[in-house]
Design brief:
Layout: H1 11-23, H2 28-38, H3 52-57, H4 68-79
């Protein structure tokens, strides 16, 4: 069963959403439904949704002993 939902949004945001949907060949309702479908299902997200480069890196540091301090030092060395 489908029900109607009313959203109150800024006119500029609505225009941007409509243009974005049009470029993707979808309706704003379809985009909102897809987004709502993702809510609360963090564990259900598929690896296929990730870009290929990100997908190839997923889990590469699992079990690593690196911490935020080490990462910060690396960035300071690289850019500092």
């Amino acid at each position: 069963m489908q029900s109607k939902l009313t959203l109150r949004l800024d006119d500029r945001l609505i225009s941007r959403a409509k243009a974005y949907a049009k470029r993707r060949g979808k309706s704003v309702s379809e985009m909102v439904a897809e987004y709502f479908g993702l809510l609360g299902s963090r564990s259900d997200r598929s690896v296929q949704e990730l870009a290929p480069t990100v997908r190839s890196l997923k889990g590469v540091l699992r079990g690593s002993s690196l911490d935020k301090g080490e990462h910060r030092r690396h960035l300071e060395d690289k850019y500092g």
